Structure formats: structure tokens, C-alpha cells
Amino acid sequence: MNQFHSDHSLISPTAKLVAWWRSYSDIPYAKESSELSHAYTAVHKMMAPLQITPEQTLWGAPILEIRYKSLLREIKKSGIKQVMELASGISLRGLTMTADPTIRYIETDLPGITQEKLRLVETITGKSANSVRPNLIFAEANVLNPLDLDKAAEGLDPKKPVAIIHEGLLQYFSRQEKIEATHNIKSLLKKYGGVWITPDFDFRASMAQWGKMSPDTEKVLSAIAEATGRAMLSEAFENEIEFRDFLTAEGLQAERIPQFDESIKVTSASAANIPPVVLDMVKTSLILWKITLKS
Ligand SMILES: C[S@@+](CC[C@H](N)C(=O)[O-])C[C@H]1O[C@@H](n2cnc3c(N)ncnc32)[C@H](O)[C@@H]1O
Fold first, then answer.
1. What's the rounded Cα separation, in Å, for the pair 162 and 25?
2. 137 Cβ partners below 8 Å, 6+ apart?
3. Which of 8, 70, 138, 196 could in theory staple to 291 by disulfide, Cβ–Cβ 3.0 to 4.6 A?
4. Three-state DSSP class for 79?
5. Is there an atom of ligand 1 within 6 Å of 88 CB?
6. What's the pTM?
7. Residues 25-56: pLDDT tens digits?
8. Is 8-293 CATH 3.40.50.150?
């Protein structure tokens, strides 16, 4: 396998894998998004080469639920009223958040999955996606293309700070791509001010934990790597020290926030039959990073 296939659209079907996992939760639109996008079929296709059933991957459900809910919590806590989501897949957080008219939300992803999402939103709302709400914009943007990002950011109010968020993107990136994405996000932060919130910096030192989630973890990760053409997590930062050194050199600083707290009700654990010991591991190990320009 090519270590890092140059075609990033190969990563897009993972948006359906996580959408299916979230369908076990009470996250708004999760069930509709999963069903309408035929996510189960996509998961089946992704896992079949490694003889894994979709059901054997379900330990991912509480991870994705906590990740989604913790990002929502931190956006709200920040008090920032405009959000630019990168690699947003079909999670439809923008649709949820813009029920509050004081929020402005720009959802971006690669062209193929964005087009699919537009149709999904149209089916759910009965309206053309970009006219569902004046405060919700769907745009195509490759995170590694600064021109795409600048164009998508035209929908932001330049006088207000922005929360730039993404979940489940950088795990697929080579180290060089992580650096490029960081440069592009930093440019947006310099222009608008605000904060970059993401769970996407995993460390090789803590990834050993993952094998304990299920006997199938390794096979599931291999199936994802095969399908995306990406040696997933192989170029993660070694540990928090290496990550913080990288940020400091980039003129950035990070606050480490546990994803789980008592405000989060994990509704997928019983639906997906997650053993309490696995749920406890998930609750204590997941981290979110709140990154800002160094003052
Ligand atoms: C695991 S999915 C996560 C989707 C969404 N954040 C979620 O949690 O449901 C990874 C996403 O990264 C997107 N992606 C991959 N490479 C990208 C790139 N260069 N620019 C923008 N999005 C990209 C894929 O299209 C896919 O939607």
C-alpha cells in the first residue's frame, strides 16, 4: 500500500463509518444522516476485506458520541458565535447549532462528500441546503488549499472571532500534511482571531490503550487504512512534549481538556452493548485541544 495515497477523497467514506457509529446516540440528525447516506452498507464494504462485521466496530460509538458532544460543549463555552468546521462529513452539527440565530456556521469538506451532504440536507429539511438558514453555509474546501479556505471563510464576519473545528481529520494525514493544515488554520486565526478546537492530535505513546478497547481494534484500523490508502496514525506525534514543542515553534499554545465530563450523557453505550470497563477507558482517555495564537 502507498503509505499516503495522494487522493484525499478516498478518506471521505470514513465520514459514513462515524455517521453510523453516531446513529446509536441521541445526537440530532445522527439517525437520519446514517440512514439516508446508506452508512451501514459503506461500513460493511469497508470492513469486509478484513472479515470484520460492522457490529464488531461498535466500540467506536461512544468514542464518537463523546467527541461530538465535547466539541459542541467547548464551542458554546468559548462564547464565540461563528464556527468554521473543516472536514465536517455528514455530522450536520451546523444544522443543529444554527437553530440559534446568533450563531453563524460554515461547514466545509471535500467536493464529493459535500455534494452528497447537500442532497442529504435537502431531503431532511425539504429546502435547498444553502437556503435552509441564512446563518448556515455549506462550502467545498480542501484543508490543504489556502485558497479554498479563504473562499469558504468569506462567509464569516471579519469583525468577529471564529472557532475553527474539526474531528477525525488529522489522523489520516502525514506529518507534512499536519504541518500544512496547521499553517492554513493559523492564517485564519491571524485574520479573524478566535480559537482552534480539535481532538485530532493523538499520540503514539497513548495509542497503545486502543488495543484494549476490543480484540478487533487492530483489524478495524487496518481496514480503515486499506480503504483510505493512508497509513492511519503512523505519523502521529510521539507524545505531548513533541506536540507542544511543535506548537511553540509555530507560535501556538494549547490547553488540554478532557472530552468527557459529567455534562455529557453517553447514550450509545447501552444501545451498542459497550462493556462498562471499555466505556470507562473511553471516558478517561479522550482529550480535546483548544489551540490559540501565542500571546
Ligand atoms: C472520519 S471523517 C470525519 C467527518 C466528520 N468530521 C465527522 O466526525 O463525522 C474524515 C473526513 O475528512 C475529510 N477530508 C479528508 N481529507 C480532507 C482534506 N484534505 N480537506 C478537507 N477534508 C478532508 C473527508 O472527506 C471526511 O469527511
1. 28
2. 105, 106, 107, 130, 152, 155
3. 196
4. coil
5. yes
6. 0.97
7. 999 999 999 999 999 999 999 999 999 999 99
8. yes
